[in-house]
Amino acid sequence: MTTTVFLSRPQRDVxxxxxxxxxxxxxxxxxxxxxxxxxxxxxxxxxxxLPMPGNxxxxxxxxxxxxxxxxxxxxxxxxxxxxxxxxxxWCGLLCPEGAISEFSSRYGRGGGIPRWVKWNGWPTVAxxxxxxxxxxxxxxQYPKPALLVLGxxxxxxxxxxxxxxxxxRVWCRYLCPVGGVFGLLAKxxxxxxxxxxxxxxxxxxxxxxxxxxxxAPLVPLKTMRGASDCHMCGRCSGFRGAIRLARRSPSHEIxxxxxxxxxxxxxxxxxxxxxxxxxxxxxxxxxLWFNAAKQWVAEWLVERGALWPLEISPPWWVLTNYPARNDxxxxxxxxxxxxxxxxxxxxxxxxxxxxxxxxxxxxxRFDPARFHHLAQTLIPLAAxxxxxxxxxxxxxxxxxxxxxxxxxxxxxxxxxxxxxGWSGVLCWRVTGLYCKPRGRRVMxxxxxxxxxxxxxAGWFLLxxxx
Length: 466
Ligand code: SF4
Prior knowledge:
Distance between the termini: 60 Å
Number of helices: 19
Bound molecules: iron/sulfur cluster
Number of domains: 2
Oligomer: single chain
Shape: globular
Radius of gyration: 24 Å
Helix content: 55-70%
Strand order of the largest sheet: 1-2
C-alpha cells in the first residue's frame, strides 16, 4: 500500500496543494486518460473510413477536416506550448499512448528492460525517423498515414508496455519519438516537483518507511533535480514530506542542472534535430531550392533517357500518392525531399556545432561538458521554431476555411525575437559559471549569437522569404 507523508508545515502554498490533490485523485486522472484514449481513437480511425474531403469541405462540416485540424492544428502545437509552460503534464495526465502503455504493462509479462531499449539515442533517432517519414507520406494531410504513424506508435507503446516493466511507462521513458523533445521543453517550465534532500535525509534518520511510489516513467525520486523526465503525474507529491510541486525560474534547470549531467544525444536533438531537420521538414514544400534541385536532376535524367524515376510513384505508405487530389510524389520527388531535409539538417547542424565549439573555446580549454551545456542554452529558440513550424499548419488550415489571422506575422517575429533573447541570456549566465573574464564571455556570446542567427534565418526564409 502507498503511504504518502504530507508536510507538517501548516501553510502549504497553492502549488503544493495542487500537487497533493493530483496525488489523491489518481482514479479520476485515469478516467480522464481513458476519455482521451476514446477521443484519440475516434479522431484517428474514423476518417480512414470516410470519403476524402472535397475542396469545398470545412472543418465544421467534414469530420476528416475536423480531425486533421484537431490533431495537427491544435493538439500538437498546444502540447508543445503546454509542456514549456507547465512541464510534461500532457504526458502524465492526458497522453493516450502513455495510458495504454502503462495499462498493458500492468497486465503484461513484466520482463526486465533490455539494454538496447535503454540506449540514449532512441528519442533522437525516433524523432528524426518519424519526422522524415511523416513528410514522405504527408502525415499532416491524409488520414491513412496519420493512422499508420500515430497508430503504429501507439501499438508499439502497448507492446513495449506488455513486454517490459510492471505498471511502468518504459516506452515513454526510453523510446517515445517525441519524448526527447518534451524532455527538452520541460526544462523551460516554471513548475516542477521539487525534492528537498534535507527533509528526505531527516525522514531516513527518523526511520520513516513510507510505501513505495509507482513512478511510471521510472524517475529516480531521491535524486530528481529537474523536470525533464518527470511526467507531472503528481503521485509522489508529499512523499516523505520532501517532494512538492513548486515554482522555479524558467531558466533554472538549464543554467544550474543541465550542466551537471552532459547528454550528448540531447545536443544532437537540439542542434541537428530541432534546429536542422525540423527546419528542412517544414521548408521543402515551399522551398525554391527544392524546386530548382528537382528541376535540375529531372533535366539531367531526361538527357540520359532515364525516365523511370520521374514515372514511378510508390504506394501511399512509401510516398504521398493521391491522384484524385492531384498530389503524387514520384521516386525523384521523394529522393530529393529526403536529401533536402537531410542536407538542411547537416548544414545547419554542422554550422551550429562549429559555433558552439568556438564558444566553448572562448571560455578556455575545450571541454565537452561545457560544449553540451552551451548547447542547452539554444533550447528556447529551438522550441520556439518547432512551435512556429507546427502552428504554421494551424494557420494554413484556418486559412483554407476562410479564417485569416492578421497578426500572425508579428506574433511569429515577436516569438523568435524573445526566444533568441532568452537563449542569449541563458548563454551569458552559463558562460559565467565557467569563466570570469568578461571579454571571453562576450566572445562566447557572440559565437552563440551567430548560431542563433543561422537558426533564425531558416525560419525567416520560410515565413517571409518564400
Ligand atoms: S517524479 Fe514520477 S511520480 Fe513524481 S510526479 Fe514525476 S512522474 Fe509522477
